[in-house]
Design brief:
The protein is an alpha/beta fold. It has a domain of 237 residues: NAD(P)-binding Rossmann-like Domain (Rossmann fold), CATH 3.40.50.720. It is built from 12 helices and 12 strands. The strands form 3 sheets. It has a 7-stranded parallel β-sheet, sandwiched between helices.
């Protein structure tokens, strides 16, 4: 067991939250929600150059806009630097861990293991040694196994090494296991398992890419489907749980609605006034293309645009239940149609400005 050192009294805490991944889609929305509540945040970022788009995003989110960023204590560093984590989490009340490497590229398997698994484990150890009040871990529905009968998955369903879809899902599963190990050693924890997160991002990554595909004339759609949740709802849910310590010690799926990829892309196409994808992407043909693209990427030295893991994941129909979180908190998700509408509006606004 990791041996704790005496922790500061509540009145001596310098920060309420030590946040990782603050420049990503999820982390930036978490940061905005925490600051809007007046929480004192220390934020770890790999490169401060990535802070540049945040003011515009915060203005779009409102509730004080870019002015909120003045209160952040920025820390440039790496999750794999354990001495840094140990020193900088000292004096913080809780850690909120949102940083992760999201990649289906087989070449990134080792990087994902290092960032997602080892980085999470180091954070857990730092929390234990410094006697922090708790750790909130942003995991993924990638760690949740879908039942064989097609019913919605709930928090009781854990993926296994065999059922996890590729190296990214396996890295997130092992990261979550590191968090539950921390709980066994005495660290209060709560784990959030969001589905596909939709929202305005600081640099048009993540879900904005899906909108961009439709804009560029996507013709084929995957045969599967999955759950979707708004980044603003995810941030509201996290802020709510920070004030509900009695709800900790659990994992919570956060998913507002299930959609087929065909329906999702059709809604996006309608809002962008583009032709919707109308050709089903047969998994066998897609796998062949993905393998060819992966091989070509290695030759050309660039990331593949399609990978076997992504094909397998998008061919599955996955459904998720957030009933446990609703019952515990009374939380209501915004309609996913609004999330898609706002995401498309932001995409069009970015194109107008540029």
């Amino acid at each position: 067991m990791t041996k704790p050192i005496p922790s500061p009294a509540a009145d001596d805490r310098t920060h309420d939250i030590f946040l990782t991944g603050a420049t990503g889609l999820v982390g930036s929305h978490l940061l905005h929600a925490f600051l809007a509540q007046g929480l004192r945040v220390k934020a770890l970022v790999r490169d401060k150059a990535r802070l540049a788009p945040l003011p515009a995003l915060f203005d779009a989110l409102g509730q004080g806009g870019r002015g909120l960023l003045e209160a952040v204590d920025w820390l440039e560093g790496d999750l794999l630097d354990y001495p840094l984590l140990l020193a900088q989490t000292r004096g913080c009340a809780r850690v909120v861990h949102a940083a992760a490497l999201v990649s289906f590229d087989p070449a990134d398997a080792e990087r994902a293991r290092q960032a997602n698994v080892l980085g999470t484990s180091w954070l857990v150890d730092a929390c234990l040694v410094n006697g922090l009040e708790g750790m909130m871990h942003i995991s993924s529905v990638a760690t949740v196994r879908s039942p064989d009968d097609g019913s919605p998955a709930d928090e009781r369903e854990f993926s296994t090494w065999q059922t996890a879809s590729g190296h990214y899902a396996r890295s997130k599963l092992k990261a979550e296991m590191a968090v539950w190990r921390g709980r066994e050693e005495g660290l209060p924890v709560v784990v959030l398992n969001p589905s596909v997160v939709l929202g305005a991002s600081a640099d048009q990554r993540s879900s904005a890419r899906l909108v961009g595909l439709v804009w560029e004339g996507l013709r084929h759609y995957p045969l599967g489907g999955t759950g979707f949740v708004d980044a603003r709802d995810l941030a509201r849910a996290a802020a709510l749980l920070l004030a509900r310590p009695e709800a900790w010690g659990e994992r919570y799926i956060l998913s507002a609605a299930d959609l087929s990829y065909r329906d999702f892309f059709a809604q996006v196409a309608l809002l962008l006034m583009r032709r919707p994808p109308d050709r089903p992407l047969a998994p066998a043909a897609a796998l062949w293309l993905a393998r060819a693209e992966t091989a070509l990427g290695k030759i050309l030295g660039r990331p593949p645009r399609l990978t076997p893991d992504a094909v397998r994941s998008s061919a599955k129909i996955s459904r998720y239940s957030s009933e446990k979180f609703r019952r515990a908190t009374g939380f209501e998700f915004m309609p996913i149609e609004k999330s898609i509408r706002d995401l498309c509006a932001q995409f069009l606004n970015e194109r107008t400005i540029s």
